[in-house]
Amino acid sequence: MKKIFTVLGFIWAAICLLIVLTMFPGLDSFSKQMAKLPFMKINPSLSGGDVAKTIEYESYTVNIHKPVFAALIGESSRGFVQVEWIWKDSIPVPVYDSVDFNMDLTTDFIIEIDPLNDTIKIVSLQNNVGEIEASARTGNGWIARIGLINEAKLE
Amino acid sequence: MKTELAKLPPYNTAGHLWKSLLFCLPMFLILFMFLSGGRPDFSDIKFTVSFLIVFILFNYLFFKILYTGKTDRYRSVIFILYAVFLSFIFILNMFETRDAMTFNSADMLQCNIPFCHLVISMILIPAALTNSIIFPGNIMGGFAPITSMIVIWGLSSLAIGKGFCSWGCFYGGWEDGFSRIRKKAKLKNVNSLFRWFAFAVLLLVAISSAVMLSPTYCDWICPFKAVTEFEQVTSAETLIKTIIFSSLFAGLVVILPVLTKKRMQCTTLCPLGALNSFTNKINAFDIRINHEQCTQCRNCINACPTLSLDESSYKTGRAHFTCCKCGKCVDVCTKHAINYHIKGVPVNKAQSATRILFVFSAFLFLAIFASGSIQMGVYKIINLITTGSLS
């Protein structure tokens, strides 16, 4: 019995060495396989969620994401909607946009971006729309997260 | 040296020049293949010099590990170099891409934060419950993508267990380095119960990260932001975060390791270190004490940098599951009573073969993992000397 365990132990140790030998040559392939796993996506609370609507203007493009109410289980009562402005040819332009993030054909908020002074302002037109939670100027545009109240959760 | 070597078990490479060289040959060939990328291009003289420096150094250290029978002494050279060069390259890269060591809200909102292995301990519960990763990084591609780090950590944990903390973690090298500055510890007899602190931290950050859907350890605690990147100070909150991580770096990574000669951050604060302890359970290698040879001199207990050996180890004949297999206890034991061991094999059997198998696997992992950063670092230094510019 001792001999069998000894042999099995050494086989196990040899497999460990094989793992190290295959780890780096196979890293790309293993990573690609791992990326296919269902949980291998960034949580919407960090990524901003999927893009729901894209609007093209003459000098910039707007990406409006789906509202995010991320929670460990279910939905949280507060969330945000991410909106991105991408300047064409990376040339900064002033923005004054009416945004309908839930596509109910009514404007939810108005956003004003002044790239010269690096300022962003919001005028909330609905009760469930809050303040700007985070915003940043990027290399070719602007990103903002506007706070939302989850009305479904409140009901 | 000769009398000491004479006491070693048979079939040992220690003191046997030709046997050591023979065992070095496969490492020589494998390292040449990995470090040169399989298709060496020696047209760039600076690349050739940096390649040769790293290649010769690694092979020399592996030869010394085999020939002297000392593991930790030579492992630590690469381990510390890796930590220093990785931080050097990382910070340089941050300055080249962002003009600063700090990241700002645009990097966060665009998910451009490089992933590090410490986050793994925080993403497991949210991954199971929300089917997503709670880190603003790249899944694939870019600098330090999430999938690559998880694959490297997962496979290395299978191969060497918590050995990852001594043979792969590029943060551990900082503490390892500082813990070697003094010859003797100023603060002796550190209570071995401190090793359980890391488990409390793991529990706390795993739960808080899951509830907040954000890696709380990275946000608030991680001391290694001091040698990689950190959030730009733009508010009172970010100022408090900066004070916390810089104090922890000074206290747990620099001052306490210098005074105690222990890796105090790894032992008491690192959540991945605690998680990695469990990987020792699914790994073939551990550290065992041979009762017949052990005189209970406490050399190993005093030397262990992670408090994984105490009086109870003499009774059980094994290191605690928090052991990171650095080999320091094996090096200091004058009776050769403590050794690397393969589970299932009798404790006093095939010790030399066991050591060679573990050291070969672990050294190969460290050498390949570290080679890119060290080679790049050497290349940049050569560039600085010859042209006056790092880039």
In the sheet with the most strands of chain B, the strands line up as 1-2
Mean pLDDT metric of chain A? 92
**What's the overall geometry of chain A?**
elongated
* Total helical segments of chain B: 18
- Return the structural class of chain A: alpha+beta
Structural class of chain B: mainly alpha
Count, helices of chain A: 4
Please, what is the average pLDDT of chain B? Answer: 92
Please give the number of β-strands of chain A: 9
For the sheet with most strands of chain A, the description reads:
6 strands, antiparallel
Task: Bin the helical content of chain B.
Answer: 55-70%
- Helix fraction of chain A, binned, reads 25-40%
- SSE succession of chain B: HHHHEHHHHHHHEHHHEHHHEH
Number of domains of chain B: 3
Low-pLDDT stretches of chain B: none
Query: First CA to last CA of chain B: what distance?
Result: 46 Å
β content of chain B, as a range? under 5%
What does this structure look like?
- The complex is a heterodimer of chains A (about 160) and B (about 400).
- Chain A has about 160 residues and is α+β, with helices and mostly antiparallel strands.
- Chain A folds into two domains: about 1-35; about 45-155, no CATH class.
- Chain A is about 25% helix and about 40% strand.
- In chain A, strands 1, 2, 3, 4, 8 and 9 form a six-stranded antiparallel beta sheet that branches. In chain A, strands 5-6-7 form a three-stranded antiparallel beta sheet, with no helix packed on it.
- Chain B is mainly alpha-helical and about 400 residues long.
- Chain B has 18 helices and four strands.
- Chain B is globular.
- The model of chain B has no long low-confidence stretch (mean pLDDT about 90).
- The interface between A and B is large, with 46 and 61 residues.
Secondary structure topology:
The complex is a heterodimer of chains A (155) and B (391).
Chain A: H1 2-23, H2 27-35, H3 44-47, E1 51-56, E2 60-65, E3 68-70, E4 75-87, E5 95-99, E6 109-114, E7 119-124, E8 129-138, E9 141-149, H4 151-154
Antiparallel strand pairs in A: 1-2, 2-4, 3-4, 4-9, 5-6, 6-7, 8-9
Chain B: H1 2-6, H2 17-36, H3 45-68, H4 72-98, E1 102-103, H5 105-109, H6 120-130, H7 146-160, H8 164-167, H9 172-178, H10 197-212, H11 216-221, E2 230-231, H12 236-260, H13 264-268, H14 271-279, E3 285-289, H15 299-303, H16 311-316, H17 328-332, E4 338-342, H18 351-387
Parallel strand pairs in B: 1-2
Antiparallel strand pairs in B: 3-4
Helix pairs in contact in B: 2-3, 2-18, 3-4, 3-18, 4-9, 4-18, 6-10, 9-12, 10-14
